[in-house]
Amino acid sequence: MATIQEIIKQALNPFDPVTFATGNFWEDPDNGAVNVKSIHQHEINQITSTLSAVNQDHRPRTILLAGDSGSGKSYLLKRLKKQLNQQAFFAYIGPWANSDRIWRYILRETVDSMLKVPEGEQESQLLLWLKSLPAFKKTGWLLNERQQFISDLRASYPGGIHRNKEFFGVLYDLTNPERHHLAYQWLRGEDLVDTPRSLDAGILRTG
Predict the structure, then answer these.
(1) What is the pLDDT of residue 200?
(2) Which of 172, 91, 100 has the alpha carbon at shortest distance from 138?
(3) What pLDDT score does 11 carry?
(4) Is the pLDDT at 13 greater than 60, yes or no?
(5) What are phi and psi of 122, to 5 degrees?
(6) Is the pLDDT of residue 202 over 70?
(7) pTM of the predicted model, to two decimals?
(8) What letters, b where the CB count within 10 A reaches 16 and e where it falls short, cover 108-144?
(9) Which of 10, 59, 126, 170 could cross-link to 114 by cystine, CB 3.0-4.6 Å?
(10) Contacts 24+ apart (CB under 8 A), 145-151
(11) pLDDT at 194 over 60
(12) For residue 102, how many other CB atoms are within 10 A of its CB?
């Protein structure tokens, strides 16, 4: 029979700087079997309280998670996603060396994360967010009400959004299986060709 020391050596050590996970909670999902609730519970409570404050006053907050290599930052992020993904959407943006294209990289990583399906859900984070908008609750999923959806959203943001007519139209096109892929490319900042199909979908070339 193996000793306890031998069993421990055979298992992945989440705090080992050589074997720990990458930190991408979408590609490396949480293993609930090794969760220890008492670890980082104070930090989780603080972050949960901060999220509640954001939901109440709709003001952004920034939380810096710092720690030595192998101290459990990735473990904490996975627990946060597992525990709070019903209350918030999560995006993973990994390291990027080319500072000249950092904003495009952040955009694409964010959109890619929003296309992920949270645990226990049937639809992506992006569609879950879209369906929660008052304008979508009002117009539903009827394709012949696309213009009404755009008008309602534009009225909801009187401060203005850059290229709002195109942007809101693309959001609506995400619900159409025939237009979903082009809409996704547009959101990622891809250089789309003005084909008749893309123009019909309300998607124009973006730089």
Answers:
(1) 44
(2) 172
(3) 63
(4) no
(5) -105, -15
(6) no
(7) 0.70
(8) bbbbbbbbbebeeeeebbbbbebeebebbeebeeeee
(9) 126
(10) 146/172, 146/202
(11) no
(12) 12
